[in-house]
Amino acid sequence: MAVVTAVESSLRYRGWRVVAACFLMALFCWGFAFYGHGVFLAELQRLHGWSTALISGASTATHLLGALLAAFVASVVDRLGPRILVLAGVAALAGATLLLTVIDRPWQLYAVYLLMSVGWMGLGLAAISTILGLWFAERRGLAISLALNGASAGGIVVAPALAFLSQALGFAAALRLATAVMLVVLLPVVVLWIGRPAHRTAASAGPPLPAFTRAMAMRSFAFWTATASFALALVAQAGVLVHQIAFLDPLLGRALAGTAVVVTTGMAVVGRLALGAVVDRLDPRLATALSLASQVVALAIMVLTTDPAALLAACALYGVSVGNIITLPALIIQREFAPAAFGMVVGLASAVAGLVGATGPGLVGLVRDLAGSYPAALAACALLKVAAAGLVLMRPRRA
User: Fold this and answer.
1) DSSP single-letter state for residue 305
2) Can you point out the beta strands (E) in the chain?
3) Nearest Cα to 116, choosing from 88, 152, 153, 141?
4) Is the pLDDT score of 317 beyond 80?
5) Architecture in CATH for domain 214-392
6) Distance between terminal CA atoms of the chain?
7) How far apart are CA 325 and CA 274, in angstroms?
8) Of the residues 48, 126, 183, 195, which has the maximum number of CB atoms within 10 A of its CB?
9) In sequence order, what are the residues at sequence separation of 6 or more whose Cβ sits closer than 8 angstroms to the Cβ of residue 36?
10) Domain extents for the chain?
């Protein structure tokens, strides 16, 4: 029987099913564990009278622990396989969302949100990048871009559905229904499509190499220029997105400010698709710097104008690179580190950047309070983007 060599550009290649599965993973992971936090905040305040600071602190704890756990994704995949990792993530996320319907003490809220961190580990950025790294080499950029569009879809589909169902059915019934849908959709997809490739791709071919450790990565100039740039960009990006409605509401009104958020999220999908089609042929460091520069221009427009049309255009321009800022670091790592180290280095970079990026909303809020207005906070975010662009262009020397 003839041996068929897998070709990543072929639509019949099994790796594209894995991309579809990762898209659905991102859809529910970001839908519940990122965008869904806004719905949880409003409903938990209504039900229990807990303060914004208390609930927001639990959300921050989730993201911090999720970032730490990302560093160990590659180790879990190596020892237990990608399917076990993802199933554990699904179980943790489903368990957390169901437990949210029965808690009545603040400590229980923190325990549930920390359980949600395991969902981030099994379904989030590090997991998706590592799994797709097993299946793709030449078209890895396109594969990751397509899969991570599920993150934007989570903000467009899952979070609004949670808000609508909570109003129509009540918070507990809404979460139980949404969790049931997630399990019905994800479980068969994970069981059937998530796994290791049977063939040896360019990502796994070649003789065994000496183990590349986390300590070696942490001493690498290439690692830090890519990771520090990613971290600074995430600080600014998380801050801008969390405070976007608060900044725009006085200028545009609540309805148009909500439209601006939809525009930003929609353009993130467009930007990922557009860049994903060509990114495997581009210099990822230069593409990252140009993406950051476009966001600096967008922030400058937001600072300098109050015209509604200009502000909406700036939100659209900013949104084009929102998804790509998350996708591109993995492609830099692919180019500059050995294939066998890809998953470990991506997980470590995600952990470092996630820990730093989690401070973004708080820092933007602090600058806004000290300055008395949002333009100063947005200007600070623009400076962080400039610094990130400079760092990513500091290329390591080639041996």
Assistant:
1) -
2) none
3) 88
4) yes
5) Up-down Bundle (1.20)
6) 43
7) 14
8) 126
9) 158, 159, 162
10) 15-193, 214-392
- The CA dihedral of 110, 111, 113, 114, to the nearest 10 degrees, is 110
Cα-to-chain-centroid distance, residue 296: 20
Average of per-residue pLDDT across 314-340 = 89
The candidate with the shortest Cα–Cα distance to 130, out of 325, 342, 354, is 342
The radius of gyration of the chain from alpha carbons, rounded to an integer in Å, stands at 21
| Total residues found in the chain within this entry | 399
Of 386 and 397, more confident: 386
The pTM is what? 0.82
State the pLDDT confidence band at 211, using cuts at 50, 70 and 90: low
What's the mean pLDDT when you consider all of the chain? 87
Which residues lie closer than 8 Å to 308 by C-beta, 6 or more apart? 251, 252, 256
User: What is the DSSP-derived secondary structure letter of residue 157?
Assistant: I
> Distance between CA atoms of 128 and 329, rounded to whole angstroms?
13
Q: What DSSP line would sit under 361-382, residue for residue?
A: HHHHHHHHHHHTSHHHHHHHHH
Cα 156–368–62 angle (5° rounding)?
50
Q: 15-193 has which CATH code?
A: 1.20.1250.20
